[in-house]
Amino acid sequence: MNEETKISRERMIEVLNQELARGYQAIIAYVIYSQTLKEVHYMEIAKELEAHAAEELGHAIQIARQINYFDGMPIATPKEVKISDEAEEMLRSDLEYERQTLINYRQRIRQADAMGNSRWAKPFGESSSRNRNICRTWPTPSASTRRRSKNNECLMFDRCLI
């Protein structure tokens, strides 16, 4: 078992607090992005982002519960949220948040398992599964409304690269 996987209780509290800060970041980003996407072809995505904000709140509560289980104190400060006037930039930021979250959740699952706390890995597995399935639930615009970036790549399908 490598050192990255086998961690102390104190280190688990620290990394869970990092996940909690990332969860706060996601909640804030989803709220802002869902309310500031203005183009008509992004309206379905805006609705989906609202739903994700609620899901992320549930994940944040689960993570705070885990921190408490390990006798830690949940933090109150989010990671920085990238704000832009450009819808494409907001969606790219969201994609990066999701990608990093998946990487981290997979590591948390391995760490919790290595500590003998498999039941505390369960919420990460559920979140990770939801994030992997975004491609199936993310609205795909029709060919006439599909939005393309400056590099002519379809932004709606970027979510499938997670």
- Overall CATH class: Mainly Alpha
The proportion of strand residues reads under 5%
How much helical structure, as a percent, in the residues?
55-70%
The total count of strands amounts to 0
How many whole angstroms does the radius of gyration measure? 17 Å
Please give the largest β-sheet: none
What order do the helices and strands follow?
Answer: HHHHHH
Walkthrough of the structure:
There is one protein chain. With 162 residues, the protein is mainly alpha-helical. It has a single domain (9-161), classed as Ferritin (Up-down Bundle). Helix content is 65%, strand content 0%. It has helices at 9-36, 43-69, 87-114, 118-132, 134-137, 155-158. Helix 1 runs antiparallel to helix 2 and helix 1 (9-36) runs antiparallel to helix 3. The protein is elongated, with a radius of gyration of 17 Å. Mean pLDDT is 76; it is low at 127-162.
Question: What descriptors fit this protein?
Answer:
162 residues, Ferritin, elongated
Produce the secondary structure layout.
Blueprint: H1 9-36, H2 43-69, H3 87-114, H4 118-132, H5 134-137, H6 155-158
